[in-house]
Amino acid sequence: MPVASFRKSIRIRVIVGDETVVLVCRQPTGAEVSKFLSERFTQKGRKITNHHGEARVAFINRILIDVENATYENADGQMLPLNAQTSLTEGDLAYASRILDIPVRDWKDLVNASWKATAAMTFEESQVEDEGSQGN
């Protein structure tokens, strides 16, 4: 009988001004990384469209399990810690959706998209290194 195994988490540090935010992600499967890499571009005929930003954010949203050293502003104007245990009220969700101009459903939507994009680049860079080292 197969035994479920838990994948090691990956801690990706993102420099934000004078601070460091840590995105804690689960180890993605090979299929998830492949899907992410292929979603970065679409091709129709001779036209290639770049979707790097959207693909990076979606990929990190799939594997993000926590964030450290981040805060968010709630509907009452209070700065509170942002992490996987963050519970948002309906008022907080509506406020954040209005401020960010995106539908906010949970804590992951409050994590800055540029932080997610930076974290995703870690996986792109490791793929390039892996591909480059195969010929050696």
Spell out the blueprint of helices and strands.
Blueprint: E1 9-16, E2 19-26, H1 30-39, E3 41-44, E4 47-50, H2 52-63, E5 64-68, E6 70-73, E7 79-82, H3 90-100, H4 113-133
Antiparallel strand pairs: 1-2, 2-5, 3-4, 6-7
Helix pairs in contact: 1-2, 2-4
Structural commentary:
- This protein is an alpha+beta fold and 136 residues long.
- It has one domain (9-125).
- The chain is 40% helix and 27% strand.
- The chain is built from four helices and seven strands; from the N terminus they run ββαββαβββαα.
- The chain has helices at residues 30-39, 52-63, 90-100, 113-133; strands spanning 9-16, 19-26, 41-44, 47-50, 64-68, 70-73, 79-82.
- The chain has a three-stranded antiparallel sheet. A two-stranded antiparallel ribbon has the order 3-4.
- A hairpin with a 5-residue loop joins strand 6 (70-73) and strand 7.
- Mean pLDDT is 87; it is low at 1-5 and 128-136.
What is the tally of helical segments? 4
Number of strands: 7
Give the overall shape, derived from the CA principal axes. Answer: globular
Q: What letter string, H or E per element, gives the SSE order?
A: EEHEEHEEEHH
Q: Could you give the distance between the termini?
A: 39 Å
The mean pLDDT is 87
- Give me the side-by-side strand order of the main sheet: 1-2-5
Beta-strand fraction estimate: 25-35%
Radius of gyration: 17 Å
Structural class: alpha+beta
**Low-confidence spans: pLDDT under 50, at least 5 residues?**
1-5, 128-136
Summarize the main sheet: 3 strands, antiparallel
What is the count of structural domains?
1
Helix content: 25-40%
